[in-house]
TrEMBL record:
InterPro entries: BRCT_dom (IPR001357), BRCT_dom_sf (IPR036420), CellCycle_DNARepair_Reg (IPR053036). Residues 219-230 have a biased composition (Low complexity). Transmembrane segments: none annotated. PROSITE patterns: BRCT. Residues 4-102, 102-193, 337-420, 607-702, 725-847 form the BRCT domain. Residues 211-234, 455-542, 573-613, 772-793 are annotated as: Disordered. Residues 471-484 have a biased composition (Basic and acidic residues). GO terms for biological process: DNA double-strand break attachment to nuclear envelope; double-strand break repair. The lineage of its organism: Eukaryota, Fungi, Dikarya, Ascomycota, Pezizomycotina. Residues 777-786 have a biased composition (Acidic residues). This is BRCT domain-containing protein. GO terms for cellular component: Cul8-RING ubiquitin ligase complex; nucleus.
Amino acid sequence: MAEEDLKLFDQCRICIVCSNDLPLETAEQLAALIEEYGGEPSIHQSSPEKEDTIECTHIIASNTHFHTYDLARKTLIPVVKPSWIHTSLAKLKVANPRQHSPDPRLFLSDVVVTCGDIPEGDKDAIVGGVVAKGGLYSPRMTGMVTHLVDLTTDSDKARLVLTKKLRVKIVLPHWFDDCLKLGQRIDERPYTLPDPEIMRAGFDVPVRSHENKGLAGASTPEPSTMPTPSRVTGDKTSVFSGKSIMLSSDLAIGSHMLESIEAVLKHGGATVTSNVEDADWLICRFREGVVYRTASRLDKTVGNLAWLYHLMTFNTYTRPLSRLLHYPISRIPIPGFEGLKISLSNYVGEARIYLENLIAAAGAECTKTLKQENTHLITAHGNSEKCSAAREWGLQVVNHLWLEDSYAAWKLQPVSNPRYSHFPLRTNLGDVAGQKMLDRDVLEQHFFPAEAVQERQIAQRGASSRGQNKKSMDQPEEKPREESGTMAETSHGTPQVKAKRSRRTSETKQIQTPARSRLVPEDKENETPSSTNSRKSKEAAAARLHEIAPDIALYEKETKRVGGVIYGGRRKSDEDRVAVNPKKRRSIEPQEESCDGEQATDTKRQKKSRPPISMHLLITGYQKWVGKGNERKEDADKRHLRELGIMVVQDARRCTHLAAPTILRTAKFVNALAYAPVIMHTDFVDECLKQNELLEPKDFPLVDKAAESKYHISLASALQNAKNNQNKLLRGLRVFCIEDIRGGFEAFKSIVEANGGECLLFRGRLALSHNSRREESDDEDEEMQSDEPGRSEVYLLSGPEQKHARLWPRFRQLAGDIKRSPRIVRVDWLLDMAMSQKLRAADEYELNESLIEATED
């Protein structure tokens, strides 16, 4: 065993990077241990050079702030924390580097979890999540355990922790769930047993925030004042020692401040240069210009003035990419951010300043107050007046992770990602703001692509050799025999169609071809570029396109069904599921819609057994499918109907036919009326299933004189009106709805929107807007809409309950503020209009306080 201990780190060349968390004394102790057990250590007080990084087998660092971290990651050199050495010695074998990584993406790398009395399924999920994010699992309570996940303190493990006062945190499973949903580690204190805050604090109790020390000196890209340099000048070793630094002319700082900065740099042992090729670091303001692109392509360290001031303040090297606002900003907004108006809520101190500056750097506008013209609200938790108002107005409510991810990827991220709308109950997300890092690959792609210089040089060379290119372009068939053979093999799967080209077209392509060639050897720059590579690329692309054509066709098919492609897979019993025949993957014809997902072994047999869809049928009030235990019958009947060419749908927008036993006031029936479908009795469904054939819908008309008399409508007239209205019955009308109204807000919202109106939730907290978004977007119909009734009124759907009546005075006040007439009406007003497809006056449906009193008596 002693012999093995001596060779524990045999053949390991380990670089130790010093920092504030890993001082020189600790590094020397680690180096002595490594050398004692057969390793070869080297200590670096700043970032190791490229040669040292490539030659080593491991890098020990407390963070990822050293300059060559990206190089180590790309070359698969493990970067580990000092705990890796101690764990390896304790186990007498080299530990897994992943569990000791300082990579912030592995945010649970310090966690060793064990489980108490929790369900087995929850245990498997927690253990899998912890291990995936860098942590470890221990089945027993050992000295390595840092967290015990339990529901109470009554388990044996929890009593052991409390009795022996072990340094183990007993947390609820909710903590792991919230960490994994956010993709970041949050504070355990609100989840810690025996008295977790998330279980006892009320919803309206303010969520406290803590100081975010990680944003110190990193909250603005353009600091206004220079830090006091005493901390730097007093140290024997400066972070600037031996560095050559270039200060770009786009910094826009005065001569006096420039002299002060240069004095501090020179006093710290740096030299100031004006040649970017001689510089180690470039300090600039914007991601543009020849100097910026040259330094970036030469892999120089590029940062902004805020980063330089941060180094002066703390005298510790950090990578500019480790903080979003330590890297130069762009004058051009992120695609999709221009025109966005974003407000902040519940962020305080440095976190708020940081997000305000990040919004500006992204190219959007940050507003101090929240208005209806805002597009987004970024909030640190979900319970505030601003959050309630934003949801009422239909704004996007997200956390700061959406903004940080968009900035780092330089692409507008979809707000539908659950990560951006998750708000832990008793956590202020401002505590974890500023942990996102930039990706050099993304920056290279958008701001300093390496091939840009080569393409420009090749284009210049191609212009001088245009005459030689003409021969090779006009006679592409004259090639060496080896090349023609290769071409024949490449194009075997994709036949080429030869076509005659005019001389003008040929000459145009002659001019463009040299610019398309990317790689021309330096010693052959005067030779005519061959078109073989270009043709090979085209044919390879064509072959690849032919290969993935079935997937493209399937994706386009999926985008047409309800829900799109973002909600995961479908069950075989779902009527909108798309069937794919795996034995016909080469076909690029769109697959037919399928309600049961069965896969026929023969395409012709499948087409024969599944006729084209001739009817999209919406069914409501069908009692044979209602009740527990009828799910299988419903699925079987839907499959049977699909075999007859009838697709049963759930969305009124997709239906061409509607089947009901009587005239109903269900959401399906009322919504479908707006689209003027063919309406028949549900006997049509029974007979089609019974006779096993598609019958004529006109033979099963829906006749319900009693309902027509009750609702004062004519079904035939309503359908004709719907055809004339074209879903514009309520166009220009804005309808508000009380949240707990009978029938549900979502049902009435769908009815209003199906008829072209706008429906918003009303809680009585904040002001109403002057104009609806529909009015603002319909400029071409402005003159037509100005004469429509109801444009000067706003409506509130309410019930005759006392709790609803409390909101009426507030609604009247807010309507008066925007110079509109308030109309508080029963839901019958909306239903009668939707059923008859005619506008009706609100007078006979209006509610007032006298009706409330009569109801209560």
